[in-house]
Amino acid sequence: MIRLNDITGKVLTYHPRADIQLIEKAYVYSAKVHEGQVRLSGEPYLSHVMEAAYILAQMKMDVVCVAAGMLHDTLEDTSATPEEIERLFGAETLRIVDGVTKISKLKFNSAQERQAENVRKMILAMSTDIRVILVKLADRLHNMSTLRFQPPEKQRRIAEETLDIYAPIAGRMGINWIKSSLEDTCLYYLEPAAYEQIQNTITSKKEERDHFINEVIQMLSDKAKEWDIRCSIKGRHKHFFSIFRKMKQQNLDISQVYDVLAFRIIVDTVRDCYAVLGNVHSIWKPVQGRIKDYISVPKQNMYQSLHTTVVGPYGKRMELQIRTWDMDKVAEEGIAAHWKYKENGVSGVADEKQLSWVRQLMEWQQSLQDPVQFLESVRMDLFPNEVYVFTPKGEVKEFPMGATPVDFAYSIHSEVGEKCTGARINGRMVPLRYKLRNGDIVEIITSPKAHPSKDWVGFVKTSRAKTKIRQWVQNQERQESIRLGREILERCLHQDHIAIPNLLKSEQLGAVARELSFRSAEDILVQIGLGRVSAKQVLGRLRPKVVDEKEDKSEGIVAKVVDLLKRRREPLGIEVTGISDMLVRYAQCCHPIPGDRVIGFITRGRGVSVHRENCPAIIDSAPERLVPVNWSPPKDEVFPVILRVTSVERKGLLADVSAVITQKDANISKAEIQTTMDKKGISFFTIEVKNNRQLQEIIASIRKVKEVLIVERI
Ligand code: MN
Question: With b meaning 16 or more CB within 10 Å and e meaning fewer, what string describes 488-526?
């Protein structure tokens, strides 16, 4: 078992002046809160966190990171609180411990490759400090090494998760030794037969192989002296998982995988790398297509090396990797290789050049605004423009930063989006404009009666949701315009006593649409509904066609129809100054009549509605939507007006008032009488008048009726 001294001693080897008290304090605290907890292996729980801390020390991490490794399970498994950790170990330590805890709590299924990628991104996005990932990797590395104590089902699940998520993350961080170690352990649990086969093959001829390795190393060393190049040579078999991968990819048996051996030649300079490559090829024949130059074109995780496969002694294939000492360090330690102590004891990534390494490491990184600031704070924000959340089934979905439950709903299905009324995040109800956060579990609540709101466009972030909402709104408006357009057109037809059954499907309207360069009869109704085309205009073209058809069918009514068509169409009651062919409606709130001072209000998609100038409904409306309107010359149309007549209650009053109205040539469409407590009668008359002059005459006459007190238009 690892002892505290092993950890602090290790730290002091790479940073002699490190403040190891923090680590010691973390040890004491961790021992206290984990007391009594035992691992499945039978060891005290403390052993696990110490192993993790030791791995971090092996990675040459700073004291904060090592201390955080020692504390990494306290928040999840013990009575320790964040406040206490912060008080005792500082905000930086807490941030790391908290980050590791959050990741540990995530429950995901990583079955599909795409899904696994999203999970990896989510973990990286949640780790705003690189050290969170490193502690998590150390934690996982030790857990994998003690996986044998877990029940088989759990072994499998953890191994799968490690292979899908953590080994690739280690690879992305460039920490090769952790990646290889994790992969090999996973192989042991996931493909035990293959693992055993590879192991047997490699160990069965161990002596022979060792002899061969030594022979090659000796040959190369001798040659290097000839070439006058200083180098160090290591030989080893490749790690099991990479052999396994090769067997699988190329469908080979282990006996057919020849180059299980790899040699590494480490030299002082880049020039030496290329020199060695050339010289090696002069003694051993290279295998076609296997030469790779990762020095001039580094891998995304900044791995640099020359690779070649050659046919070596005894006709055996072997892989050679040639690189400098620096490159070797990066290849093994990855991001940790850049984790150096500065003179003042503050840790940080070494310099701007190496920082670019970190940047490129994160291949999906969109933009990094200020690399210097990034460097100083050792925080990372890998995906500033993305957020990762869970479905209730544990699937991870990616969204642009600031996305809302509505975006989430539309990403499932447009129908879910259209019917969504609310959302539960981590089990709590939130408003639809809630901004999703990394790791949220999102559940959408739908209702069959719900429908999208125009306002949603203002806060959704995905273009899919935006487009779908706009489409829905547009379609709603279109349906409304069609309804309105049909109504207007049918009313006009009706006035002319022409009936076209099923107007929309009729051939005639389709023909007119084509004449006016619209795509369909529906489109023309939309245009009428929106007030962009007048019903008159359409009717003018429709009429001859209607006639033709009627002639064919029945000669008898031709004369009648022609007669009807000759009659002048009544002009609209209103001219809207400056705007022609506008759809005009009379406001239902104030019932304007000819002679009133009126003003037009441009509605959304419903043409102009005409209000009386003092109508309360338009006083507060946007001034830019108001247009001047004029009454056109008088005609036969009548307009409804409501009058309120207040009087002393008496018999026959209603009859008297009605008589006066009728005398003045106006219709009464409705009359209603109420009696008040103080014996007054209040009557409401809805009457139809031609214009304001007629109305004024009627009002004057009613005032003259006995016992009438007040007459008002309302
Ligand atoms: Mn742990």
Answer: bbeebbeebebebeebbebebbbebbeeeebeebbbbbb
